[in-house]
């Protein structure tokens, strides 16, 4: 797992507990479904989402590149996106809106993995996790 290097020491400890499942709540349920945690590194991350949700991308220099574009179809109104409200099995918990897309560029290296591909499923789901201070 790659986490943003801008996190301070207290934030790093909290992120490791959250994504490791020790903090409880929704992330603990998600962590229970992860078969093997290969490691965590704090790295520079650039993440961008177009205001109209037409595209999104992530870049971790030398490790990860991901670019996706939203799906559309013959019945999708101009400027609208293919979306699901409160998607079942959402990685970020209940009550969210998933915008569906497809990858146009993907590469991942690290933790014993080296993978590239395109035309895979992608989704953008905003979230705002909060917990005890």
Task: Provide a brief overview of the structure.
With about 130 residues, the chain is mainly β.
Layout of helices and strands, plus pairs?
Elements: E1 2-4, H1 9-20, H2 25-31, E2 41-43, E3 46-49, E4 55-60, E5 64-70, E6 83-85, E7 97-110, E8 113-117, E9 121-124
Parallel strand pairs: 1-2
Antiparallel strand pairs: 3-4, 4-5, 5-7, 6-7, 7-8, 7-9
Largest sheet: 7 strands, antiparallel
Query: Which oligomerization state do the chains in this entry correspond to?
Result: single chain
- Average pLDDT figure: 88
Poorly predicted runs are: none
Counted by DSSP, the helix tally is 2
Instruction: Spell the H/E element sequence.
Output: EHHEEEEEEEE
Radius of gyration computed on alpha carbons: 16 Å
- Structural class by helix and strand composition: mainly beta
Total beta strand runs: 9
As a percent range, the share of strand residues is 35-45%
> Which descriptor suits the 3D outline?
globular
The termini sit apart by: 24 Å
Q: Work out the helicity level.
A: 10-25%
């Amino acid at each position: 797992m790659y986490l943003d290097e801008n996190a301070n020491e207290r934030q790093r400890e909290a992120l490791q507990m959250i994504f490791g499942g020790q903090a409880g709540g929704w992330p603990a349920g998600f962590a229970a479904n992860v078969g093997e945690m290969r490691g965590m590194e704090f790295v520079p991350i650039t993440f961008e989402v177009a205001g109209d949700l037409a595209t999104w991308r992530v870049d971790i220099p030398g490790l990860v590149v991901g670019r996706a574009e939203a799906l559309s179809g013959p019945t999708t109104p101009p400027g609208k996106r293919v979306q699901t409200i409160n998607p079942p099995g959402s990685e970020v918990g209940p009550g969210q809106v998933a915008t569906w897309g497809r990858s146009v560029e993907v590469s991942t290296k690290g933790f014993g993995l080296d993978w590239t591909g395109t035309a895979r499923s992608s989704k953008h789901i905003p979230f705002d996790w909060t917990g005890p201070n």
